[in-house]
Specification:
With 844 residues, the protein is α+β, with helices and mostly antiparallel strands. 49% of the residues lie in helices and 17% in strands. The strands form four sheets. The chain has a six-stranded mixed barrel. Strand 18 and strand 19 (627-633) form a beta hairpin.
């Protein structure tokens, strides 16, 4: 026995033994890590495996945390962002439960509030921008803002100035502020641009400033800012087309601010008269709502991101369990060494230091590599078009908080993977280790049970992640099968906007539209040309109250709100929406507009059930002209695929004006149906636009197939991340099963040799080992299934037409895990079946 103890000490460096015997409980961190590095270098397979596993776990968790941090946790990049709030209203109205701001409500609050130190308004816009007359214009995404907005946000211009007070009045000189990106791209980064005039929709406008690249309000796509032309003498209190942001005074809460605005709100119709009767206005129960700006910007993705971060944590737990199992296996093989060290005077702290130093080195290296992988993953995700479905994605980076998180995760991982083998080592009696043979001392049932528990935990956690990714895959498949209501194949969409300075009348606008349609129809391969003011699934929206003649509302009630779009008669053929009854619009005439309308099937069913809508009359607004319904078309998903098809009213491109004459929208989407690949015709259609007006830019050119694919971008992005986490978890689970079974075979070679010497066939041995692996996986699957049923209910808001306990997804996951477990168990079982009985019986 003494000889066995002495031979075991040969693996310990002599200097280390001296240190232990001379200074019983003295621990030198530098020496500990030096000796730990030496020990790990002597076990390259163990070290490399553990390092890869930890790198995957820490990298995945850090990458997902960086997204949560950038989108949800990082303060908005404005001065004192905690004071910024978004202002809106709740309403009680059929088809609508909230609205933003009208010009009247914004001006009213700005004048009379007692709770804000500043207020600003904005709305999304786009303009045709050209450096000068005769130069090509390009379509630029802009924000139309009040003069008070940018100073209130507190981000100073790169150079130049903000809009001056009064520059947002309707009669003020035209001005524009450029983003740094647009300034560099379009104007060659010339600082002399400030003070010069550029053409904005054909109107000369002075460039007054350039905002730094970090200023991205209201979105990362905003390239310029123009003043909102407020006219206090001509407001529209019932048109809620503006967003508003305010800065709370010190000590004011959002609830107190909402109460103050409700105090002011009854004055609106007195100070800003409207054709809307006061009793009708009161019937919608307009109430102010005040919410933190950051919550408004990210509210619809917060649950999604926390779920994704949870998957990263689960991957890390699986990695920790895997490496802890490796440490446990390795530690059991070194019990004699630890026993000798203890016999020589090493205390518990010395044993802990040995385990922790090895774990810390591996976790530290894994943390560094994981941080590098996280950076690469972030860049990869940012390059995916699907990532743009998340707000603030451009702000995601490896900042100080992410680095601190990675450090904390690394430290926690080192502790986690070193605790399990330490606890097992403490439970092994010193006398038993020194008395028994090395192999018998490490093959106890209790130690095998510890390894098995870790494997079961890995399988259970892996099942949760794989089940989550399976649910998202099922949801994505269901979403892909939703009929959008139009034919996306062989169709091209292209936007144009006619500047008022060049097309000042309805006649000039409709003449251009008609002429362009004729030009595009002449292109070989084109079968139909349509126009619309609202392209389905484009993210835009247009709605308003619609009165139905034979479904009148009360005298002081507001008619229901419905989605609306302006189209030409050929639009439905171009986009592939079927005409169910009646006819489409005829030629568009700006001199004699015809008050006709078309409705979707859902709209017709809502008001006339099985009856025909043809010949019925509706009207937009409260007191507008009546329109006769001439056709019924199929339902279309305008806003999103995961919501029911909307009730839609279609009006012609040319409609009667409010007073007299006609009205035509100056911005429209051109829809072109072709016989072949729609993308191939994009240059020809663009040339047709420029042939009629060389200064007119086209923008948002895309095939309808691409648009349809983008409609499920967020679901696809979530599915990709969950699938990646599921694959990693599945791989780590398989490695865990394989490692435990392979180690068990190495310990049981003598037993296996005896069995085979007594007549057991190789197939019997192989089945015995495989059954043990399958049994472990089965327990893990059972536990994981219970956990998955409890956890996946938090995904309900992310799923479409799929239950959080979908039997196909959960059942398929269980089968997949068991199949992986079978393969992971079969490899060691095959090795066991090849054991030579004579060699096994001769081995010690």
């Amino acid at each position: 026995m003494l000889w066995r103890a002495r031979t075991a000490t040969k693996t310990v460096a002599p200097a280390y033994v001296l240190a232990l015997t001379s200074g019983a409980t003295m621990i030198h961190p530098v020496q500990e890590f030096r000796y730990a590095a030496r020990r790990l270098s002597r076990a390259p397979a163990f070290s490399l495996t553990a390092l890869i596993v930890l790198t995957l776990g820490i990298g995945a968790t850090t990458a997902l945390f960086s997204i949560v941090n950038g989108v949800l946790l990082r303060p908005l990049p404005y001065a004192t962002p905690g004071q910024l709030v978004s202002l809106a209203h709740s309403v009680v109205l059929k088809g609508l439960d909230h609205v933003e701001q009208s010009d009247a409500s914004f001006l009213l609050y700005q004048r009379h509030n007692q709770v804000f130190s500043g207020m600003g308004s904005y709305r999304d816009a786009a303009v045709n921008l050209a450096p000068g007359s005769g130069e090509d214009a390009e379509r630029v995404s802009t924000a139309s803002v009040s003069a008070s907005l940018l100073p209130m946000l507190g981000v100073a211009p790169l150079f130049g100035r903000y809009f001056a007070a009064g520059e947002d009045r309707f009669d003020a000189p035209h001005a524009i502020i450029l983003s740094e990106g647009l300034w560099r791209k379009r104007f060659g980064a010339e600082r002399s641009i400030v003070g010069k005039r550029v053409l904005v929709d054909g109107v000369p406008s002075e460039v007054v400033g350039v905002m730094p690249v970090r200023f991205q309000f209201p979105s990362a796509t905003t390239e310029a800012w123009i003043p909102t032309p407020f006219d206090p003498a001509h407001t529209e209190p019932g048109s809620f087309n503006y967003h508003a942001v305010a800065r709370l005074r010190d000590g004011v809460t959002p609830a107190a601010a909402a109460a103050d605005l409700d105090r002011v709100l009854p004055r609106m119709l007195d100070e800003y008269p409207s054709d809307i009767p006061p009793a009708m206005f009161a019937s919608v129960h307009l109430r102010a709502t005040v919410r933190p700006l950051r919550d408004v910007m990210v509210s619809d993705v917060s649950r999604l991101l926390w779920i994704l971060f949870g998957t990263g944590v689960v991957v890390l737990l699986i990695a920790c369990a895997n490496v802890a199992n490796l440490f446990l296996i390795r530690g059991e093989a070194r019990h004699r060494e630890l026993a000798v060290r203890t016999a020589l005077g090493a205390g518990r702290s010395a044993v802990l230091a040995q385990y922790f130093s090895e774990a810390a080195l591996l976790a530290g290296a894994g943390g560094v590599l994981g941080l590098a992988i996280a950076g690469s993953v972030i860049r990869l995700l940012a390059a995916l078009p699907e990532s743009m479905a998340l707000p603030r994605m451009a702000e995601v980076s490896l900042d100080g908080r992410v680095v601190a998180f990675a450090f904390a995760v690394t430290l926690a991982t080192a502790i986690a993977v070193s605790v399990v083998p330490l606890l097992r080592a403490r439970r092994v009696p010193l006398s038993a280790v020194l008395r028994d043979s090395g192999r018998s001392a490490t093959s106890g049932v209790a130690r095998q049970r510890s390894r098995n528990v870790l494997v079961v935990a890995q399988v259970a956690l892996a099942l949760v992640l794989v089940a989550a990714s399976g649910l998202m895959l099922r949801s994505f498949a269901r979403l892909r099968n939703v009929a959008p209501g139009f034919d996306a194949e062989h169709a091209l969409a292209m936007n144009i906007a006619l500047p008022n300075a060049k097309y000042p009348s309805s006649s000039s606008e409709i003449q251009y539209y008609n002429a362009l349609a004729d030009q595009v129809r002449a292109i070989p391969g084109v079968t139909a040309v349509g126009y619309t003011t609202w392209l389905p699934l484009s993210g835009e929206n247009d709605n308003g109250v619609v009165g139905v003649e034979d479904h009148p509302v009360g005298t002081n009630e507001v008619p229901p709100v419905h989605d609306q779009a302006r189209v030409n008669g050929e639009y439905f053929k171009a986009i592939g929406t079927p005409l169910l009854s009646g006819r489409t619009f005829g030629a568009q005439d700006a001199v004699h507009p015809v008050p006709e309308a078309m409705v979707s099937q859902a709209f017709a069913k809502r008001y006339w059930k099985a009856g025909s809508p043809l010949g019925k009359r509706i009207r937009p607004g409260i007191d507008g002209p009546w329109y006769t319904i001439i056709g019924e078309v199929g339902d279309v998903h305008l806003a999103s695929l995961d919501k029911p098809a909307e009730d839609i009213v279609y009006f012609p491109m040319v409609t009667p004006g409010h007073d007299s004459g006609s009205s035509v929208d100056s911005r429209a989407t051109l829809i072109v149906r072709t016989t072949g690949d729609a993308a191939v015709l994009t240059p020809a259609v663009r040339n047709a636009v420029h042939a009629l007006d060389a200064t007119l830019p086209t923008y948002q050119e895309q095939t309808m197939a691409r648009l349809l694919a983008d409609a499920s971008a967020r679901t696809r992005f979530t599915m990709l991340l969950l699938a990646a986490a599921g694959v990693i978890a599945l791989t780590l689970g398989a490695v865990g099963i394989y490692g435990v079974m392979a180690y068990g075979v190495s310990l049981r070679q003598r037993e296996i040799g005896v069995r085979m010497a007594l007549g057991a066939r190789p197939a019997d041995v192989s089945q015995m080992i495989s059954r043990q692996g399958i049994a472990l996986a089965g327990i893990g699957v059972a536990v994981g299934l219970v956990v998955a049923i409890a956890v996946t209910r938090f995904m309900r808001g992310l799923l479409y037409d799929v239950s959080a306990t979908d039997p196909v997804a959960l059942g398929g996951t269980c089968v997949l895990l068991l199949a992986v477990a079978f393969v992971a168990s079969w490899l060691p079982a095959r090795r066991a079946a090849g054991v030579d009985p004579s060699d096994a019986l001769r081995s010690d």
